[in-house]
Amino acid sequence: MPETALLPLIVASAFIGCLVPGLLARFGRNMSALGAAGVMASCLALLAPLMPAVLAGETLLTAYTWLPDYGLNLAFRLDGLGLLFCLLILGIGLLVVLYAYYYLPGGHVRLPHPNPLPHPQGVSPPGLAAKPLNPVRQAGEGANESLREISNHSDRLGRFYTYLLLFMSAMLGVVLSENLLLLVVFWEVTSISSFLLIAYKCDQRDSRLAARMALAVTGGGGLALLAGVLLLGYIAGSYELSVVLAEGERIRNHALYAPMLILILLGAFTKSAQFPFHFWLPNAMAAPTPVSAYLHSATMVKAGVFLLARLHPALAGSELWFWLVSGTGAITLVYAAYIALHRYDLKGLLAYSTISHLGLITLLFGLDTPLSVVAGVFHIINHAIFKASLFMAAGIIDHECGTRDMRQVNGLFKFMPITATLAIVAAGSMAGVPLLNGFLSKEMFFTEAVGHPVFEEMSWLLPLFATVAGILAVAYSSRFIHDVFFNGDPVDLPRQPHEPPRWMRAPVEILVVLCLLVGIFPQWSIAPLLGAAASSALQTPLPAFKLAVWHGFNLPFIMSLVALAGGITLYALRQPFFALHDRLPSIHANLVFKRLYELLMMLAHHVVNLLDNGSLQRYLATFITFVLGLGAWAWYSAPATLARATYQPADSAALAALATLIVGALGATLLHRQRFSAIVFTSVVGLVVALTFVRFSAPDLALTQLAVEVVTIVLLLLVLHYLPQNSPAEDSGLRLMRDVVLAVGAGAGLGATAFAMMGSPFETISGFYLAQSVPGGGGSNVVNVILVDFRGFDTLGEITVLAMVGLAAHALLDRLILVAPGHDSDGRPWAKELHPLFLSTLMRPLLPLALAVSIFILLRGHNMPGGGFVAGLVTGVALILQYLASGIDFSLQRLPRHKAKLLALGLLLAAATGAASWLFGHPFLTSTHGHIVLPLIGEIELASVMVFDLGVYIVVVTTVLMVLAQLGRLSRHHEEAA
Amino acid sequence: MEAVVATAIGILTACGVFLMLRARTFPVVLGLTLLSYAVNLFLFASGRLMLDAPPLIRAGARYTDPLPQALVLTAIVIGFGMTAYLLMVALRAMAETGDDHVDGREKS
Q1: Whole-prediction pTM value?
Q2: Using one digit for the tens of pLDDT, what is the confidence trace for A524-538?
Q3: Chain A 27-56, CB below 8 Å of chain B: which residues?
């Protein structure tokens, strides 16, 4: 197996691995966590053999075609950038699995109530709500974790890990995709899985709203990205990255470059929370802290900047790119840093600081010099490391103190000195203190700001901007350190803080050690990976750069010093500054989003109400109007040619039939409020239709129509028994007028269409059926042969639908109790004698006769009019007559009890006849036939499709029976009630 | 002859549509039944109208088009299934709402 085959294997095993922790959850949370870690570790193990080649600068590619017509292939790619992200995703993922194991509610929490079912909110038994829920300390952010959350926590840990792995798999897919469309697919999966993770505490409204907002923003950005990628593929002529990345020149000069770039940037900026789409990220802090540490520092929000890095060779290098990307990045950098300074919530501060750092990375890619790209990639690494550790530290503080509010959380150093030291180091890295990794990439940023070629006249602007951003970063980092760990004593903490469990702190320790390693020995620790990643982001030879702590006493270093001093000063003087901030008018992006969302929902409701206000009449009328419009349009755009048509003359019989039909139809319509009369008129119409079939050479149809007519009328009568006998006169004149217009329009339209159709030239495809019926199908009744042989698969579908009607009868009417009135609408009581002796005596000997007739019809159906449908209906009629004559109890006792099994038998017979042809190597439902000679009866022709027809027969009979039995059961209730 | 059948189709459609637009379940079912007749006749007519030509293979006979007949046959049976189903839904709605209005409630 070539090494590159490992790439799809990594993604596939990650996706399949999603199920592991969920399935292992029943064996306890330990197994669940081990499973999740195992999946991540095995992905790392699969990645390991590929690493040397990639670090040496190779790009590994592998592709399987999927939908080649659409340019969508299962193509994977591993280069330095992909490897860097894989390591971040899997490495930090492993730490998060360990951390979440301690962070999320533990298995030792017991419900204070024996009832395992959660109580819906608001109806919990009195006393329960007042009782303290947690005799043992319970993890979580809010003090009021709901009952539900504790009740099935061990399942929920499995679910959490499953979501986490799903997210991880999608991220791996994004960074390993060679095909851009495939990348978009995985991109959307990250949005969905992050939705699930943010809404992890789905019983809390905040979580749900935050998850919805994140999905709306990132999912919407994903749609823009899809559009942008489609344009990009169109411009470049391929969706494969290797092609696209080499086509930079052509892409930038294309007329569609600007819209394409804006669409793709929309995708990247929403994902990476760039201003003005940043607002979802602070809300997403409603997620459990392990999720924030993973998604909102190291991985998901990095997907956006990953995309910038990935597509850099293809898209960058234009003025538009420079201004859009660096402008957005710069605004985000400073704005978010300013907001971060004013947050009281620990996670809120970190969230805005994340936005600010993402802005920095975006700005670096926007500056678009080779070194700035290197700095951007470097900062991706550094930020992931220190921010993940900070989030974890914040989670520990929350876990131990029960709150994250910095007005309460003070002076923690003396309670948890080790955690405090770790967090201080990580925060120092965030501020850009020398000897820590954050310092190195910030130094590179300052260097690029100083030397950037675009701002010739105002060369001081960018360095000034960079310094201001640096000052703000130092200020909020100082605030994080000083407020939380010093600044007096804690205020009203819900819990007494102390150091967390040993292994909960381990992930933070590992990350902080990495901060130091990279910060002190950059050349030795990170340079190879950074070099590989940056060169694949640039797709050009790497610029010369030196990773070192000390570059001499130059302008960037002075800027660093100014930032440090300025930041600490700003923090020291924060009181007047905060007071000023409080007086500034605030525009909450949250509110804007909410307004927009509500506006959109209102619009949607209006549109829905317009079309579907819950009134059947309204939308039937809409529908018919629409169809009429379509018909009129078709009629006028292509007038039918009626001129040369030859029609057959009508005879008196036809006219008489037409007159009868008109009387029946109009009678049913005009008298529809007297429902019994309407049924009678309808049955007249049915009979005329059956006669029409007789007249025009369709004996099978006539038989079927007649049998259906009888069964339908009986059903209508049975049902009418339980419904009002008359309709009230409730239609307004206007409504009637509208309906008459619609009805006449529809009738005239269909009538005219039918007339035009019958007059138009005619060509049939039925020659084949007529010619093949006897030699191929072994039957001379072509209609039946079509049904059971040529189009047997359709018929199988039809009887399945019928079987569903039978089951629906059971589902709809079982245990239903309807009491029918004891008298008719004029107040006359129904006949006392329910089952007249004369009728029942007459009917019993008739049953065997009727059954014999139906079997006759079934058997002869292949050659003469008849067949399974007709025979089944005739049997149905015979059984209905028994029921009418002798009552439901009499009938049910003599009928099979397990009707559902009979249905299944019928369907199986039909399907098995079809499947049997497989045994002989023929396609499904191939028929065979032959002649056999029976004593007394003589030679008869047997075709395999007769078994099929038997299945049809059984299904039809059973369906009729099931409907009947349910309706009959209703009347039994009625009799009992009477 | 064609004009007679076309008229029948038109009348049945008009009556069926009118009844389907009523506010009570029972007339709607009747309307659907009438409309089914119309549609079945229409489908049947697409094979044209021929007298004394059933599609039963015999020596020297002429045959009408069997394919629309096969289609209509299944349409009749399915139409029956649909009618039966709708009737049961109507009963169920009657039981649940105590009313036979198509929207499950009276218009206010």
Answers
A1: 0.68
A2: 888 888 888 998 888
A3: none
